[in-house]
Amino acid sequence: MTTASAHEFFAGSASVAGALIGLLFVAISVAPAGVLGPDASEAHSVRAAAALTAFTNALAVALFGLVPGFDAGDAATVVAIFGLLFIAGSLMRVVPAWRAKRIKLSDVSYLVGLLAVFVIQLIVGLGLDRHSGNKGDLQMICVLVIVCCLIGIARSWELVGGPNIGMGHELFQLFRRRRGSQGPGADDAEGR
Question: Under a CB-based contact definition with an 8 Å cutoff, are residues 73 and 160 in contact?
Fold first, then answer.
């Protein structure tokens, strides 16, 4: 299996990633002060940059995968290195804000997911460089393109202030409500 065999996937992925980048720019332009202005929070700025990085990663891998005779492993490797540099830069920006208690670590926990994506992408990109016919590495690169689009969508949703309705969030809220409704003496009343 060669990169050419994934041509249709890369063509579709490039279109999706390009459209998502355009929508991200529209979302940021609607309220630029919250992301780009002098009073922008570090969490919002890094969240916007993370979405753009994830979308750009998917776009670059997909576009280079479309170049005749070009191996997507090279693009995946280079873009993964840039992604890792983005993670390092983001940490340099958010750690001082976290120490100053301007943000919570949970506000930037998605960086762990992006780090995992870039590390895996680097490994499979190098693997595909060594063995261009490796079907598993090419499939993993394709999966990572999809994952990058999904990560970018999730970060964009948070950026525009969309509600968090994930299962983990909902269970946590349910637990919090139940615990709050019981009050301090509720445990004694239940034990009787």
Answer: no
